[in-house]
Write a structure and sequence with these properties.
single chain; globular; alpha/beta; 6-stranded mixed beta sheet; 241 residues; Nucleotidyltransferase, domain 5; nucleic acid binding
Length: 241
């Protein structure tokens, strides 16, 4: 296998507001959210209650993780590049994050493991770490950057790779998959819909899990494109339980 792909784990997380309704949020947190909501540009005059459903899930202090999907590249029996997808989903965040921690610590060499996500350095990695600490879970080595030198932090980010040092603009995974002609993960769902689907659809978590898995596949294919390597054919992608 290409050396760039060794010990490399791709991931994506899906998050929602911590409670289904703003009124169910602890009173002290409501005060903090009202203060936070005051910083949002709000041309339509949305109330803190309305903004809570729209935006709370992107902040680790007011949201929670409901799904984490991982992708690992490997060579199959024919020595061809293949992709294995493994996901964890649960309404109970402590149980979910405990499973993720166990997966990271028991399935990989912790000191050599690298992780890659799109906008991972700004969102997925810190969000996952913060929610683990809030849940009283000790961080696995790969997520614990305390005391590490910059070159010891094993995070890769396809958004950062695309920026080439340009810090001005955000480029979505969906846009990059479009220009690189990679099948998009946004078939029947996008990030703005996750909170609504989770709290108001009977099979919401299952639908969101499938979406998260597709995001990981898209991130893997984008990484390969940016390394000018062949993408993984559909028949070489396996979702494991």
């Amino acid at each position: 296998m290409n050396y760039q792909l060794r010990n490399l784990l791709f991931l994506d997380i899906e998050t929602v507001a911590h409670t289904s309704e703003y009124q169910n949020l602890h009173a002290d947190l409501q005060k903090h959210w009202e203060r936070k909501a005051g910083f949002f540009r709000n041309d339509e005059g949305a109330t803190p209650e309305e903004l809570y459903g729209q935006k709370a899930g992107i902040y680790a202090e007011f949201g929670k993780v409901i799904t984490v999907a991982f992708g690992i590249l490997h060579e199959d029996s024919d020595r061809q590049l293949a992709l294995r997808i493994k996901s964890f989903s649960n309404h109970d965040e402590f149980h979910l994050l405990s499973e993720v921690k166990d997966f990271l610590e028991t399935k990989f060499d912790p000191e050599n493991l690298r992780m890659c996500a799109h906008n991972g350095k700004e969102f997925d990695f810190p969000y996952l770490s913060r929610r683990m600490l809030i849940n009283g879970i000790k961080l696995p080595y790969v997520l614990d950057n305390s005391g590490k030198k910059p070159w010891e932090v094993n995070f890769l980010d396809t958004l950062e790779m695309w920026k080439f040092g340009d810090r001005k603009n955000y480029t979505s995974l969906d846009l990059l998959t479009t220009i690189f002609e990679i099948p998009s993960s946004k078939s029947d769902l996008d990030g703005s819909m996750v909170n609504e689907v989770y709290y108001h659809e009977k099979d919401g978590l299952e639908r969101i899990t499938a979406y998260c898995q597709r995001d990981v596949i898209a991130t893997v294919q984008l990484f390969l494109k940016m390394k000018t390597l062949p993408i993984v054919p559909d028949d070489k992608i396996t979702i494991v339980t």
